Amino acid sequence: MQYLLLFATAEDGDPYVAEEDDIVQWVQHTRSIGADLGGERLRPPEDATTVTRRGGRTIVTDGPFTESKEWIAGYGILEAADLDAAIELASRHPMARYGQVEIRPVWSLNLDLGDAS
């Protein structure tokens, strides 16, 4: 099953320590077991753009939609046997120590889009 990991900042997290919080080791481990399906860091909230449609109008707003001190710093997609396995992998990510990791099962749309050509 696929899981989306949302890596977020947290005010109550432990301080970031470069020697302890090496993302490269986590990525190497998840890749070595075939669990890493991709992921990236995200630009800060100031670089966000929010798009909504209301009453037939498109509304574009600079910045994030939510107002909070925490912000999504990145994401990852894992393949794991079940939620327990995803939790184990997420708990090893450095952001689990100095931020927080939200895990969401991917819910496939199963759309038949036909021939894309």
TrEMBL record:
InterPro entries the UniProt entry points to: Dimeric_a/b-barrel, YCII
Domain YCII-related: 49-108
Origin superkingdom: Bacteria
Family: Belongs to the YciI family.
Protein name: YCII-related domain-containing protein
Species assigned in the record: Orlajensenia flava
